[in-house]
Amino acid sequence: MTHRFRRIANQPFSVVQLAYAKCRVNLLLLSFLSVCSADVLAQPPAQTAGWQIDVPQEQSNQSQQAPEQRAEAPVNESAPIAKSDDQITQEQMSVWEDTDEEEFKAIAESESEPQAKQEFPVRPILDLEPELRISLETIFARIVELQETEDAFSANLGEAYLTYGQALVRAGRLQEARKMLANALHITKINNGVNSIEQRPVLASMFELAIAQENLEVSQELVERILWLENNAMDRRDLDDFSFPFLVRLGNSYLDRYLYRPIKSATALHQLEQAQRFLTHAVKRYGDRPLNQLYMPYGELALVHLIKSKFKKDVERTWYPSNDRRANELLRRGVSDLPDFKPIGNAYGRAEQQLFSYLTKSLEENELEHTVKAFISLGDLNLLFNYRTTASQYYEKAWESAQALPAGHALLEKFQQPTALPDFFYAMQREDVEGKLATVLVPLTFALDKYGKVENFTDDTDASTSPKLISRAKRTARRMVFRPAIERGKMMPVEQVSYEVKVKVPRDEVNQG
User: Fold this and answer.
1) What is the rounded distance in angstroms from the CA atom of residue 458 to the CA atom of residue 444?
2) What is d(CA 270, CA 279) in angstroms, rounded to the nearest whole number?
3) Which of 214, 123, 203 is nearest to 162 (CA)?
4) Contact 447, 272 (CB under 8 A)
5) Which residues face 503 on adjacent strands?
6) Is 351 in contact with 302 (CB distance < 8 Å)?
7) Bigger pLDDT: 405 or 71?
8) C-alpha span between 325 and 393 (Å, rounded)
9) How many angstroms separate the CA atoms of 183 and 164, rounded?
10) Which residues of 209-242 are buried (b: 16+ CB within 10 A; e: fewer)?
């Protein structure tokens, strides 16, 4: 008996195996009909147009309930029903009953082979604002249509992936957006070449995503990739301004990362050097553009050098005569006759060099507004480094130049109200960075001397403020430098200034909430 069974088992697909398979199907049908109602069998299978759509979380939770619990739950007729392996519809049952032995053998062999699972890239997002939801659904339907009607590497499909990825970034679905943008970049490389300049829009969208995720390392790689494509794809004389905003934004992002935790360490110095690197590259690459077309990040570079001056680092210095004598000679010969200063090792000299470049460019292009800004920035820089005579002369030049501006111009207000320094003019609008440590704003009222130093405090602080915080705020204010009021080009003292000083919260008060 055992020998006969082995002989039958070693034979190819035979009538015995066919009968055994049909018997298993009949048993499966009987067991299925005993537990399922006729209404469930009569319901047609869900149509997904050849794609598998992600099942919402609510449906997946219902599928794990007991049979009696699912029977009591209301049925959503519009939602697709997921089929398990042991569920057979009446349509499938009738097809199997009409199938002869040869056809059944072919079906059994085809179903025994593993089938490739097709998954839809990303399902539409429905829990958003109406305009964004409609936009996502429209682009989603476009991707479905292109995948069914065109080639897998169609340029139209790449554009649809790019548009969908950008919409997902606006919706806050960053991980899904990263996959869509990767698909768009891959299709662009296939159609245009690995070193094609057409990759820049996709790389720019990936840069926006990396910045949104605060991943500066990936952002840096993407900007460097864009620069490499530009250097290999076009002549420098025909270079457009595509990369300029990314260089400035990346430099400002590294600067903000330092300001998030401003401690004097090797990591902090590396962040400042990275900011200086990309901002300097923006000036070198696009510095020949007119100021009314591109505003170079002179103010950001001056701020970076100002911060680096606080670091203890041995640098090679080139000594010049007294700064006051040099400024007097500069002003005596006339501002348009600026000397060609060589780069020097200290942070003040490098910051001054950037602002001198700004002033020279504004004078050459006869940009009055930028000339006033450059003079004010140079006055601020010298006041921060306690070069008061030079700062006074720059403020006087700024006030004289500003008299040619139209009445009511915004720059005229800069001379009327005191301002905490540094307050350079930046290429990109900068906002205060909320630091890592807990801080609080303490309102103080004090007087300023004509050089912007805090003198006397007025005791009108809120009584609910901790005395320890008030003491810290006063110590912080005494270390600050303000641009005082400027009347007819002269720095004037101010009797009363109201200002909110940001100070760190003591550790014991942080624990108290």
Assistant:
1) 7
2) 14
3) 203
4) no
5) 440
6) yes
7) 405
8) 12
9) 11
10) bbbeeeebeebbebbeebbebbeeeeeeeeeeee
Radius of gyration of the chain (CA): 36
H or E stretch covering 497: strand 494-504
> Is residue 86's pLDDT more than 80?
no
How high is the mean pLDDT of the chain?
Answer: 75
Find out whether 433 and 461 touch, Cβ atoms under 8 Å: no
0.70 exceeded by pTM: no
What pLDDT was estimated at residue 405? 94
478 φ, ψ to 5°?
-70, -25
Number of neighbouring beta carbons within 10 Å of residue 446:
21
Q: What is the pLDDT of residues 276-319, one digit of tens each?
A: 999 999 999 999 999 999 999 999 999 999 999 887 654 344 44
State the pLDDT at residue 98.
Answer: 46
In terms of pLDDT, which residue wins out, 446 or 41? 446
Distances (CA, A) of 485 to 18, 392, 449: 100, 12, 10
Find the angle CA(271)-CA(273)-CA(276) to the nearest 5 degrees.
Answer: 110
